[in-house]
Design a protein that fits this description.
234 residues, alpha/beta, 3-stranded parallel sheet
Amino acid sequence: MKIMVVMGEYPADERERRRQAVLKCASAGTEIGFGVIKATFFVRANAQINALAAGPLVAEVAQKAEAEGYDAVVPFGTLDAGVELARNLVRIPVVGAGQSVMHLGVQLSNRLGIVAYERSSIPFIRKNLQAWRVLDSVVGIEAVEIPLLDSTQNRTAMRDRFLEVSRRMIENDDAEIIVPMGVTMVPVQYSPVEFAKEIGVPVLDALATSIQTAEMMVRTGAVHSLKTYPRPTI
């Protein structure tokens, strides 16, 4: 099968770091293509305005991917930019990393703790959680307060902060699973298995979940409902 991953613009070394993380998530025999849009969440805040602005660009890549024979589309990152719009325009699965990892999480526990990059992104995360019908299972949202732009040079600080806020949610909010709402934290910079060993509860991987959810949809022939996502009549 062929899956198109839609990415924003990154410096060359950061782009390759993310490409390799994506490729590690795919099963043997899955071909991964990369579509790059003229947008960057790396420099600008990981916020709703950027996700909305990038939506039409993601949808355009999804349409092109379908025409080129791709079987599914996965926008890179947990903002799920363009997912809803693209689902109205194509008949192949469009899988959001944020939505898919949260739906995995609620199958495993009803006490999820979320780790974000910055507090400024938390309101948009809450909006998405409400839309995905999983907010009731979230017991806490904390931020490492390290912008994406500074993530590599502050890699050690990101690790320390991730462990600190995760332990706080486990101890104070009785979180039973930690969900990093940012694929740079996990798995680009750190392994979920490594973090899970440190804090004693499972840590989920949104990137792996999104790629493998797309694979499952393709294998089973699952597509979005036309009643939910009707094709435009114009």
